[in-house]
Specification:
The protein is of the alpha/beta class. It has 10 helices and 8 strands.
Protein backbone atom coordinates (compact mmCIF):
# COMPACT_ATOMS: atom_id res chain seq x y z
CA UNK A 1 0.00 0.00 0.00
CA UNK A 2 1.31 3.44 -0.90
CA UNK A 3 1.53 5.97 1.94
CA UNK A 4 0.51 5.58 5.60
CA UNK A 5 -1.66 2.69 6.74
CA UNK A 6 -4.41 3.61 9.19
CA UNK A 7 -6.68 1.57 11.47
CA UNK A 8 -10.19 2.84 12.19
CA UNK A 9 -10.75 1.30 15.61
CA UNK A 10 -14.46 2.17 15.76
CA UNK A 11 -16.78 2.22 12.74
CA UNK A 12 -20.48 1.28 12.62
CA UNK A 13 -20.44 0.06 9.03
CA UNK A 14 -23.75 -1.74 9.60
CA UNK A 15 -25.61 1.55 10.23
CA UNK A 16 -28.53 2.22 7.87
CA UNK A 17 -26.80 5.38 6.62
CA UNK A 18 -24.46 3.08 4.71
CA UNK A 19 -27.15 0.89 3.15
CA UNK A 20 -27.07 2.68 -0.25
CA UNK A 21 -23.32 2.36 -0.87
CA UNK A 22 -21.61 0.26 1.82
CA UNK A 23 -19.16 -1.42 -0.57
CA UNK A 24 -18.19 1.96 -2.05
CA UNK A 25 -17.59 3.32 1.46
CA UNK A 26 -15.12 0.52 2.12
CA UNK A 27 -13.47 1.03 -1.27
CA UNK A 28 -12.96 4.73 -0.50
CA UNK A 29 -11.50 3.88 2.88
CA UNK A 30 -8.99 1.49 1.35
CA UNK A 31 -8.04 4.06 -1.29
CA UNK A 32 -7.43 6.58 1.51
CA UNK A 33 -5.04 4.19 3.25
CA UNK A 34 -7.39 2.86 5.93
CA UNK A 35 -6.25 -0.73 5.96
CA UNK A 36 -8.40 -2.09 8.76
CA UNK A 37 -11.86 -1.36 10.19
CA UNK A 38 -13.20 -2.54 13.56
CA UNK A 39 -16.99 -2.94 13.60
CA UNK A 40 -18.62 -2.99 17.06
CA UNK A 41 -22.06 -4.44 17.67
CA UNK A 42 -24.61 -2.51 19.72
CA UNK A 43 -27.37 -5.04 20.47
CA UNK A 44 -28.41 -8.64 20.01
CA UNK A 45 -30.11 -7.96 16.67
CA UNK A 46 -26.89 -6.89 14.95
CA UNK A 47 -24.43 -9.43 16.32
CA UNK A 48 -24.67 -11.58 13.21
CA UNK A 49 -24.70 -8.49 10.96
CA UNK A 50 -21.32 -7.17 12.11
CA UNK A 51 -19.85 -10.66 11.86
CA UNK A 52 -21.09 -11.06 8.29
CA UNK A 53 -19.92 -7.60 7.24
CA UNK A 54 -16.50 -8.14 8.78
CA UNK A 55 -16.11 -11.26 6.67
CA UNK A 56 -17.45 -9.59 3.53
CA UNK A 57 -15.21 -6.54 3.80
CA UNK A 58 -12.06 -8.04 5.38
CA UNK A 59 -12.69 -6.18 8.65
CA UNK A 60 -12.68 -7.06 12.35
CA UNK A 61 -15.60 -6.99 14.78
CA UNK A 62 -16.59 -6.80 18.44
CA UNK A 63 -19.72 -8.18 20.10
CA UNK A 64 -21.71 -6.56 22.88
CA UNK A 65 -24.69 -4.50 24.01
CA UNK A 66 -24.30 -0.71 23.90
CA UNK A 67 -25.47 1.14 27.03
CA UNK A 68 -28.05 3.17 25.09
CA UNK A 69 -29.62 -0.10 23.87
CA UNK A 70 -29.93 -1.66 27.32
CA UNK A 71 -33.42 -0.19 27.72
CA UNK A 72 -34.80 -2.43 25.02
CA UNK A 73 -32.68 -5.47 25.81
CA UNK A 74 -34.75 -8.45 26.89
CA UNK A 75 -34.09 -11.52 28.96
CA UNK A 76 -31.67 -13.75 27.15
CA UNK A 77 -29.81 -11.01 25.27
CA UNK A 78 -26.75 -11.16 27.53
CA UNK A 79 -26.71 -14.94 27.19
CA UNK A 80 -26.89 -14.53 23.42
CA UNK A 81 -23.87 -12.22 23.48
CA UNK A 82 -21.96 -14.67 25.63
CA UNK A 83 -22.77 -17.58 23.31
CA UNK A 84 -21.80 -15.51 20.26
CA UNK A 85 -18.47 -14.67 21.89
CA UNK A 86 -17.86 -18.32 22.70
CA UNK A 87 -18.71 -19.35 19.15
CA UNK A 88 -16.57 -16.55 17.74
CA UNK A 89 -13.37 -17.36 19.59
CA UNK A 90 -12.25 -19.51 16.67
CA UNK A 91 -12.78 -16.56 14.31
CA UNK A 92 -9.71 -14.29 14.15
CA UNK A 93 -11.95 -11.40 13.13
CA UNK A 94 -13.45 -11.28 16.63
CA UNK A 95 -11.16 -8.86 18.47
CA UNK A 96 -13.10 -7.53 21.49
CA UNK A 97 -16.24 -7.33 23.58
CA UNK A 98 -18.06 -4.16 22.61
CA UNK A 99 -19.45 -1.67 22.34
CA UNK A 100 -20.17 -1.72 26.06
CA UNK A 101 -20.10 0.90 28.80
CA UNK A 102 -22.23 3.51 30.56
CA UNK A 103 -23.76 6.77 29.32
CA UNK A 104 -24.65 9.47 31.84
CA UNK A 105 -25.24 12.09 29.14
CA UNK A 106 -28.45 10.92 27.48
CA UNK A 107 -31.43 11.45 29.81
CA UNK A 108 -33.94 8.74 30.58
CA UNK A 109 -31.67 5.71 30.29
CA UNK A 110 -31.81 3.58 33.43
CA UNK A 111 -28.38 3.81 35.07
CA UNK A 112 -28.83 0.67 37.14
CA UNK A 113 -29.75 -1.31 34.04
CA UNK A 114 -26.74 0.10 32.18
CA UNK A 115 -24.43 -0.88 35.01
CA UNK A 116 -25.88 -4.39 35.16
CA UNK A 117 -25.15 -4.94 31.46
CA UNK A 118 -21.72 -3.32 31.70
CA UNK A 119 -20.55 -5.49 34.59
CA UNK A 120 -21.99 -8.65 33.05
CA UNK A 121 -20.07 -8.00 29.83
CA UNK A 122 -16.85 -7.21 31.70
CA UNK A 123 -17.20 -10.67 33.23
CA UNK A 124 -17.54 -12.14 29.74
CA UNK A 125 -14.40 -10.34 28.62
CA UNK A 126 -12.56 -11.81 31.62
CA UNK A 127 -13.89 -15.28 30.89
CA UNK A 128 -12.75 -15.18 27.26
CA UNK A 129 -9.61 -13.09 27.85
CA UNK A 130 -10.77 -10.43 25.37
CA UNK A 131 -10.23 -6.67 25.46
CA UNK A 132 -13.23 -4.34 25.51
CA UNK A 133 -14.43 -1.33 23.52
CA UNK A 134 -15.81 1.12 26.06
CA UNK A 135 -18.48 3.77 25.56
CA UNK A 136 -17.98 6.66 27.98
CA UNK A 137 -20.00 9.87 28.29
CA UNK A 138 -19.83 11.62 31.65
CA UNK A 139 -19.27 8.16 33.13
CA UNK A 140 -15.51 7.65 33.30
CA UNK A 141 -15.40 7.23 37.08
CA UNK A 142 -18.23 4.66 36.98
CA UNK A 143 -16.43 2.71 34.25
CA UNK A 144 -13.18 2.80 36.20
CA UNK A 145 -14.96 1.54 39.30
CA UNK A 146 -16.28 -1.42 37.31
CA UNK A 147 -12.85 -2.17 35.89
CA UNK A 148 -11.36 -2.22 39.37
CA UNK A 149 -13.96 -4.84 40.33
CA UNK A 150 -13.54 -6.88 37.15
CA UNK A 151 -10.17 -6.19 35.51
CA UNK A 152 -9.97 -7.10 31.84
CA UNK A 153 -7.27 -7.43 29.18
CA UNK A 154 -7.32 -3.73 28.33
CA UNK A 155 -8.93 -2.39 25.19
CA UNK A 156 -9.98 1.02 23.88
CA UNK A 157 -11.93 3.83 25.53
CA UNK A 158 -13.96 5.03 22.56
CA UNK A 159 -14.28 8.80 21.95
CA UNK A 160 -12.51 9.65 25.18
CA UNK A 161 -13.51 13.02 26.61
CA UNK A 162 -12.62 12.82 30.29
CA UNK A 163 -9.98 14.48 32.44
CA UNK A 164 -6.22 14.06 32.42
CA UNK A 165 -6.48 12.13 35.68
CA UNK A 166 -9.12 9.77 34.31
CA UNK A 167 -7.05 9.26 31.17
CA UNK A 168 -4.06 8.30 33.29
CA UNK A 169 -6.13 5.75 35.20
CA UNK A 170 -7.39 4.08 32.02
CA UNK A 171 -3.88 4.00 30.56
CA UNK A 172 -2.53 2.46 33.77
CA UNK A 173 -5.12 -0.31 33.33
CA UNK A 174 -3.78 -1.07 29.85
CA UNK A 175 -6.27 0.92 27.78
CA UNK A 176 -5.77 3.07 24.71
CA UNK A 177 -7.88 6.18 24.20
CA UNK A 178 -9.77 6.79 20.95
CA UNK A 179 -9.72 10.18 19.20
CA UNK A 180 -11.74 11.16 16.15
CA UNK A 181 -13.79 13.92 14.59
CA UNK A 182 -14.50 15.85 17.80
CA UNK A 183 -10.80 16.68 18.01
CA UNK A 184 -10.97 18.67 14.76
CA UNK A 185 -13.12 21.44 16.29
CA UNK A 186 -11.01 24.30 17.64
CA UNK A 187 -13.45 24.86 20.50
CA UNK A 188 -12.97 21.29 21.75
CA UNK A 189 -10.24 22.56 24.05
CA UNK A 190 -10.19 19.68 26.55
CA UNK A 191 -10.10 16.96 23.88
CA UNK A 192 -7.43 18.80 21.89
CA UNK A 193 -5.31 19.34 24.98
CA UNK A 194 -5.48 15.64 25.79
CA UNK A 195 -4.75 14.66 22.19
CA UNK A 196 -1.68 16.85 22.17
CA UNK A 197 -0.18 15.85 25.51
CA UNK A 198 -1.04 12.22 26.32
CA UNK A 199 1.79 9.69 26.11
CA UNK A 200 2.41 8.27 22.64
CA UNK A 201 1.36 4.79 23.75
CA UNK A 202 -2.12 6.01 24.79
CA UNK A 203 -3.46 7.03 21.38
CA UNK A 204 -5.58 5.31 18.75
CA UNK A 205 -7.73 6.78 15.97
CA UNK A 206 -11.37 6.21 15.09
CA UNK A 207 -14.23 7.73 13.13
CA UNK A 208 -17.35 6.31 14.84
CA UNK A 209 -18.79 6.59 11.32
CA UNK A 210 -21.45 7.53 10.43
CA UNK A 211 -21.41 9.61 13.64
CA UNK A 212 -19.04 12.20 15.22
CA UNK A 213 -18.34 14.01 11.96
CA UNK A 214 -15.19 16.14 11.71
CA UNK A 215 -15.35 19.92 11.44
CA UNK A 216 -15.38 20.00 7.63
CA UNK A 217 -18.57 17.91 7.50
CA UNK A 218 -20.40 20.17 9.93
CA UNK A 219 -23.21 22.35 8.59
CA UNK A 220 -23.65 25.94 9.80
CA UNK A 221 -26.87 27.33 11.25
CA UNK A 222 -27.51 29.13 7.97
CA UNK A 223 -26.99 25.95 5.95
CA UNK A 224 -29.34 24.00 8.21
CA UNK A 225 -31.94 26.78 7.99
CA UNK A 226 -31.74 26.45 4.22
CA UNK A 227 -32.63 22.77 4.50
CA UNK A 228 -29.25 21.06 4.77
CA UNK A 229 -28.92 18.22 7.31
CA UNK A 230 -27.08 18.94 10.54
CA UNK A 231 -23.97 17.29 9.19
CA UNK A 232 -22.83 15.18 6.30
CA UNK A 233 -22.34 11.48 6.87
CA UNK A 234 -18.99 10.58 8.39
CA UNK A 235 -17.14 7.63 6.92
CA UNK A 236 -13.81 5.84 7.48
CA UNK A 237 -12.15 7.50 4.47
CA UNK A 238 -12.08 10.67 6.60
CA UNK A 239 -9.64 9.09 9.05
CA UNK A 240 -6.38 10.31 7.45
CA UNK A 241 -7.61 13.91 7.42
CA UNK A 242 -8.73 13.55 11.05
CA UNK A 243 -5.29 12.12 11.79
CA UNK A 244 -3.68 15.21 10.29
CA UNK A 245 -5.25 17.23 13.11
CA UNK A 246 -3.73 14.92 15.69
CA UNK A 247 -0.34 15.06 13.98
CA UNK A 248 -0.46 18.87 14.05
CA UNK A 249 -1.45 18.93 17.72
CA UNK A 250 1.48 16.67 18.57
CA UNK A 251 3.95 18.22 16.15
CA UNK A 252 4.85 14.94 14.46
CA UNK A 253 4.97 13.73 10.86
CA UNK A 254 1.81 12.06 9.57
CA UNK A 255 3.70 8.92 8.56
CA UNK A 256 5.05 8.55 12.09
CA UNK A 257 1.56 9.00 13.54
CA UNK A 258 0.19 6.30 11.26
CA UNK A 259 2.82 3.86 12.46
CA UNK A 260 2.31 4.86 16.10
CA UNK A 261 -1.49 4.61 16.16
CA UNK A 262 -1.53 1.37 14.18
CA UNK A 263 0.98 -0.14 16.59
CA UNK A 264 -1.17 0.99 19.52
CA UNK A 265 -4.31 -0.46 17.95
CA UNK A 266 -2.61 -3.84 17.58
CA UNK A 267 -1.46 -3.66 21.20
CA UNK A 268 -4.99 -2.86 22.37
CA UNK A 269 -6.61 -5.51 20.16
CA UNK A 270 -3.98 -8.25 19.78
CA UNK A 271 -6.16 -10.48 17.61
CA UNK A 272 -6.04 -7.80 14.89
CA UNK A 273 -2.45 -8.79 14.17
CA UNK A 274 -3.56 -12.21 12.93
CA UNK A 275 -5.50 -10.52 10.13
CA UNK A 276 -2.32 -9.07 8.63
Amino acid sequence: MIGPMWIDTHCHLDAPEFDPDRAAVVTRARAAGVGRLVLPAVERSNLATVQAQARSFDAAYALGIHPLYTGRAVEGDLQAVEQSLLDGLADPRLVAVGEIGIDHFVPGVDRQRQEHHYLAQLKMARRFDLPVLLHVRRSADTLLKGLRRFPVAGGIVHAFNGSQQQAAQFVAMGFKLGFGGAMTFERALQIRQLAGTLPDEALVLETDAPDIPPRWLYRTVAERAAGAPGHARNEPAELPRIAATLAALRGMPLQDLAALTSRNALAALPRLAALG
